[in-house]
Design a protein that fits this description.
Elements (H helix, E strand, L loop, with lengths): L1 E5 L3 H12 L3 E6 L12 H6 L2 E4 L6 H10 L3 E4 L8 H5 L8 E4 L5 H16 L7 E8 L9 H13 L5 E4 L10 E8 L5 E8 L4 E8 L3 H14 L5 E4 H9 L2
Parallel strand pairs: 1-2, 1-3, 3-4, 4-5, 5-11, 6-8, 7-8
Antiparallel strand pairs: 6-9, 9-10
Helix pairs in contact: 1-7, 5-6
Length: about 250
């Protein structure tokens, strides 16, 4: 693949490393902060590329999505924090030009965590003794709170556990309602990401946890998703489409 890297911070550099290890070519490193070789994609880069991998801040995501669609590119987006712009971001790719694959977490291990979250929520659906909560830890430069991964896991709980109907984030003052799923966030240090689903009853407690040791797992998953997307038709895909192909028996 000939790839444009959008966002040349820590994740962008990790993506570059994995791309080169897997025999791909970097067309351009785009970063509005000046860390790459372009502040925005040039016409020359857009014409030379066939794929984009984006881990950038969400502010310019609507503009970049429209641009990539014009050039019929295959785009993998790991940027989070743009749910309020989702309709506008995806709209250009409904016209049959380009393909857009997005998700909150491209780590294979994190997606195994999602599948285990679904299974556990279904298993305790009729066992009322168990309450459920989610906690997530990230580095002190993390922009969005809760993390996109934590919110994705929370929605999976709500989809599969009837007694939880509402996500409650932040630090509640006082008791919470039975139907609320508390999602707690901690920020500090250089933690790449820890997500834990806790099932707790008066008799015992169980935890399902994913701990990222570094960013390589996220980068590898994004590159593998781009390789997968290159074989697909134009349109809109999610990381779940890619993971299902990869992991489902």
């Amino acid at each position: 693949m000939d790839v444009i890297i959008m966002g040349y911070g820590r994740m962008g550099r990790e993506v570059e490393k994995i791309l080169l290890e897997r025999g791909h070519r970097i067309v351009s490193r785009v970063d509005p902060g000046g860390f790459g070789n372009e502040l925005e994609p040039s016409e020359e880069s857009l014409e030379a590329a066939d794929a984009v991998i984006e881990f950038a801040l969400p502010g310019g995501i609507e503009k970049s999505a429209a641009l990539f669609s014009q050039y019929d590119l295959k785009v993998v987006v790991g940027t989070t924090g743009w749910a309020d712009k989702k309709e506008a971001v995806l709209k250009p790719f409904k016209s049959g030009k380009g393909a857009y694959l997005y998700g909150s977490n491209f780590s294979i291990g994190a997606n195994l965590f999602f599948k285990l979250t679904i299974a556990a929520s279904k298993m305790i659906n009729k066992v009322d003794d168990y309450d459920v909560m989610l906690t997530e830890y990230h580095h002190n430069k993390k922009v969005d709170t809760p993390s996109g991964t934590a919110l994705s896991a929370a929605h999976l709980v709500l989809d599969n556990l009837d007694r939880k109907t509402e996500i409650l984030s932040g630090n509640p003052q006082g008791a919470i309602k039975d139907e609320q799923l508390h999602v707690a966030s901690v920020r500090g240090g250089s933690i790449p990401g820890i997500h834990t689903l806790t099932l707790d009853s008066p008799a015992d407690s169980l935890e399902i946890s994913h701990t990222a040791r570094n960013r390589s797992g996220f980068a590898l998953g994004a590159v593998m998703a781009a390789e997968w997307l290159m074989k697909k038709e134009s349109g809109i895909y999610t990381v779940d489409d890619f993971i299902s192909d990869l992991l489902d028996p």
